[in-house]
């Protein structure tokens, strides 16, 4: 955080019920990809319901600094792409708090002529970047880091295709390699042991590229030119997660989401909530550029949520939802056990440590593991001062936990919600009955 940013606190009082209907701003992951690929493509990309979060603004800012023209026309964002060749920028490219921007941009810029410097805020400058440098170096890129971290200095040039197996389940790493592969000589293949979100594969196809997929690999032939698209970005499931979990806590609740992104690699939370006993209805399914979109209704079970274990592939698919799942775990009957989620330690904060610390501040019992947490059920939480640690998902997860606590909880660093979801507190007020 820089000295010009103001820390704000939010007071969250207990709720009686959650009721209403929401249409959420566009998915962060999809918005990043449409902004970055729209910047590279030939012609105009016109996007509606683009993410309102600061992270996606970082992606737009970077492609603009690289020569794409960005205009806002009413609700829409228009991007006039560079047609395959980015202009090196004299200034460093500021990725802000956004790991997605930095990692995916590295893949786009590795094969471009010129020198590019990518920087980020204090949190992003602590996050591991070697994971993208390694495959891109294997393709022939020249990338310098400091101790494995940003700033990232890329001296771009011609790259060769590779066949790469990702050592960590990471859609950002997969995307960086595919974006480099799009511009490399030959056919690039990425293999992953655990299937991560596939928005890049779908977005590349939407922009006209030929992408081959089978169960555990995805391949792209280099030298393909992208063409701009018109798209409405589906509502963000990871933002909906806070409201879905809030509604699941109140037996009389009824919450409906329209136009919500339901890509199967992102909608695992609906299965978890169903396993916990919540009633989830899905209707009006549509395909938008390969992305599934629909209406979702959630009602809580009369007897409270049961309990579950989240591990293996499930942990990777739920990686952004785990903080809020852990934050509501004390209110379940049998508790929630999370394993195989050590990636949580290298997100915008160490999310395992921060979730455990904040749950304890609210009086909960919780056991911390290197790769997860055990949170017993049937606990009563009390109000506390929560430290969001500059992490948007921690601020929002504990605002949800506060709805069932006794007393008024104070979320310190509430402004961080704006990284992905600036409307969060207003919408929470709108659907909360007190
Ligand atoms: C994202 C992938 C995930 C996720 C992040 C967004 C993406 O990160 O945590 O919020 O859009 O590809 P990793 O791929 O590094 O696990």
TrEMBL record:
One of its GO terms (cellular component) is cytoplasm. Its main location: cytoplasm. Keywords: Amino-acid biosynthesis, Aromatic amino acid biosynthesis, Cytoplasm, Transferase. It is found in: Cytoplasm. InterPro entries: Enolpyruvate_Tfrase_dom, Enolpyruvate_Tfrase_sf, EPSP_synthase, EPSP_synthase_CS, RNA3'P_cycl/enolpyr_Trfase_a/b. Residues 15-427 form the Enolpyruvate transferase domain. GO terms for biological process: amino acid biosynthetic process; aromatic amino acid family biosynthetic process; chorismate biosynthetic process. PROSITE patterns: EPSP_SYNTHASE_2. Its EC number is 2.5.1.19. 3-phosphoshikimate binds at residues 28-29, 33, 170, 172, 320, 347. One of its GO terms (molecular function) is 3-phosphoshikimate 1-carboxyvinyltransferase activity. Phosphoenolpyruvate binds at residues 28, 99, 127, 172, 351, 393. Pathway: Metabolic intermediate biosynthesis; chorismate biosynthesis; chorismate from D-erythrose 4-phosphate and phosphoenolpyruvate: step 6/7. Gene3D superfamilies: Enolpyruvate transferase domain. It catalyses: 3-phosphoshikimate + phosphoenolpyruvate = 5-O-(1-carboxyvinyl)-3-phosphoshikimate + phosphate. It holds the Pfam family EPSP_synthase. The active site is at residue 320. Catalyzes the transfer of the enolpyruvyl moiety of phosphoenolpyruvate (PEP) to the 5-hydroxyl of shikimate-3-phosphate (S3P) to produce enolpyruvyl shikimate-3-phosphate and inorganic phosphate. Monomer. Belongs to the EPSP synthase family. This is 3-phosphoshikimate 1-carboxyvinyltransferase.
């Amino acid at each position: 955080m820089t000295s010009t940013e103001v820390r704000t606190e939010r007071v969250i009082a207990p709720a009686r019920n959650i009721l209403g209907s929401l249409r959420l701003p566009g998915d962060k992951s999809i918005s990043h990809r449409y902004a970055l690929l729209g910047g590279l493509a030939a012609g105009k990309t016109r996007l509606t319901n683009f993410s309102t979060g600061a992270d996606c603004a970082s992606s737009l800012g970077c492609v603009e600094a690289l020569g794409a023209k960005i205009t806002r026309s009413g609700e829409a964002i228009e991007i006039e792409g560079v047609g395959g060749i980015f202009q090196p920028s004299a200034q460093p490219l500021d990725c802000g708090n956004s790991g997605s921007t930095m990692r995916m941009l590295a893949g786009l810029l590795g094969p471009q002529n010129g020198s590019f410097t990518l920087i980020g805020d204090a949190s992003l400058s602590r996050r591991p970047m070697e994971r993208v440098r390694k495959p891109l170096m294997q393709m022939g890129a020249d990338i310098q880091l400091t101790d494995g971290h940003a700033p990232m200095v890329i001296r771009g040039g011609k790259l060769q295709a590779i066949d790469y197996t990702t050592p960590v389940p990471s859609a950002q790493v997969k995307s960086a390699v595919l974006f480099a592969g799009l511009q490399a000589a030959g056919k690039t293949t990425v293999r992953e042991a655990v299937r991560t979100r596939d928005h890049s594969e779908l977005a590349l196809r939407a922009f006209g590229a030929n992408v081959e997929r089978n169960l555990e690999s995805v391949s792209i032939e280099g030298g393909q030119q992208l063409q701009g698209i018109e798209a409405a970005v589906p509502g963000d499931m990871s933002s909906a997660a806070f409201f879905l979990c809030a509604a699941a806590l109140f037996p009389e609740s009824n919450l409906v989401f329209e136009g919500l992104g339901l890509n199967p690699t992102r909608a695992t939370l609906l299965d978890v909530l169903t396993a916990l006993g919540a009633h989830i209805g899905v209707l009006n399914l549509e395909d938008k550029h390969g992305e599934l979109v629909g209406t979702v209704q959630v009602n809580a079970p009369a007897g409270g949520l049961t309990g579950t274990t989240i591990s293996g592939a499930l942990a990777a698919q739920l990686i952004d939802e785990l903080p809020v799942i852990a934050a509501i775990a004390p209110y379940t009957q049998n508790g929630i056990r999370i394993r195989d989620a050590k990636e949580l330690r290298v997100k915008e904060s160490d999310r395992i440590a921060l979730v455990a610390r904040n749950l304890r501040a609210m009086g909960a019992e919780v056991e911390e593991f290197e790769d997860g947490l055990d949170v017993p059920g049937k606990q009563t939480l009390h109000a506390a001062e929560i430290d969001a640690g500059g992490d948007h998902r921690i601020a929002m997860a504990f605002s949800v936990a506060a709805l069932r606590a006794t007393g008024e909880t104070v979320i310190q660093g509430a402004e961080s919600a704006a990284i992905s979801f600036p409307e969060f507190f207003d919408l929470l007020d709108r659907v909360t009955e007190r």
